[in-house]
Amino acid sequence: MKWTKLFIIATLTVSLLGSCSAQNKDTKAKKTDVKREKTEKAAQEKQDKFNAMTKVLIKTSLGDIKIALYNETPLHRDNFIKLVNNKFYDGVLFHRIIQGFMIQTGDPDSKKAPKAQMLGNGGPGYTIPAEFVSGLFHKRGAVAAARMGDNVNPKKESSGSQFYIVDGKQFPYEQLERMSASGYPMNADQKNIYATIGGAPHLDGAYTVFGEVIEGMDIVDKIAAQPKDNRDRPSTDIKILEATIIE
Fold first, then answer.
1. Does domain 54-245 sit in CATH 1.20.1290.10?
2. What's the distance, Cα to Cα, between the start and end of the chain in Å?
């Protein structure tokens, strides 16, 4: 009788352990499924967001660059679309290039500018209110609006046409931590991107980022690396041959 009781207790113990093990497996499986669903949902939301963005093909004399315009900055987006549709950018030069930083264009005065002419003051005759959006920052490939300095432009309003593309460089984490502590707010993801991919974090919060390069960063690098004069104007003209809306 005693052995029978012990056998029953042992059997129940094994049964309970087996039941707990099965429940743990079910719980882990459910957690895995939930995690996978969240990942898939986030990926789909990211794809939907990308699909909703307006895409622009910028054909340059050194190759093609494709950019996407953010819907979070509607004033800049709509203005850029208007200028592209009006062929405003066709024939405009990249008038300022700094390797490891950015390439700038959009000055209509550059279309027929002779060599050595100082450029960068032209535009369509209006400015655009700043649109600083959390999460849109100066990572490598960012498209942002140029503007006049704070002394004459305290509201940080953007040029009506001039923009730049960030060529960028990588920053050590230690430097990013110091920058963040001294007034350049960056979250962990932004710091990681600046450290591994690169960008221009010191411009965040001062210039409106309204798009990003989706194809052609090799062309951006190529333009940024061209010989230039002491005003950062390329020694040989680099033109936007044509800009068109493609999606």
1. no
2. 83
